[in-house]
Amino acid sequence: MILLAIDTALENASVGLVAGDRRWTRVATIGRGHAEILMDAIAGLLAEAAVPPAALERIAVTVGPGSFTGLRVGIAAARGLALVRRIPVVGVPTLMIHAVHALALMETPRPVLALLPARGDELYGQAFDADCTALCPPSARSAADFVAEAAAGGFAVAGAGATLLGEGVEPVHRDSAPSIDTLLDLGARLDPDLWPPKPLYVKPPDAAPQAGARIARR
Question: Mutual orientation of helices 180-189 and 94-105 as an angle, nearest 10°?
Fold first, then answer.
């Protein structure tokens, strides 16, 4: 399978490509401005690998939780390329990527609580078993809530949000942006029909239209 992976969920603008047993990745930590560099990064990666766009067979893209704007950029690019090529797109949650990456780093796999910073004093979190099956939907809660959950369930913790749980908690990894290599692996493994490229915000965006400014429909 020839698979293109796109991640713009958080501070990185990352792209990856698998063709047979060969793999290429490009990772740029930019914070913002994903739209300005993403398409050039994809074109450069395909040129480096000598893979024409017409040869792509599947695309994988991160769907959140993450930056509202970043998610829209990556998902729109993935959908647009897939529409032209008529190929499937797999939407992969960022918390799942963090959990799978953590499991790969463990000598003895155990259930994982993947965590990312959210707005204010909250964290995004989701629990996974040792086979990386989700045990619950993702949620946004306080650090204290997740400390209690990790202790009660005997979870390992991973992701940048895990660093906010306080002293005595040692994360398996402290990454914020998801691993592009893990995204490539999951993109090849997951069923596109079950994992569509739909944004997973968990919480609504900060900005919302003012109800009083809306024009009534006739």
Answer: 100
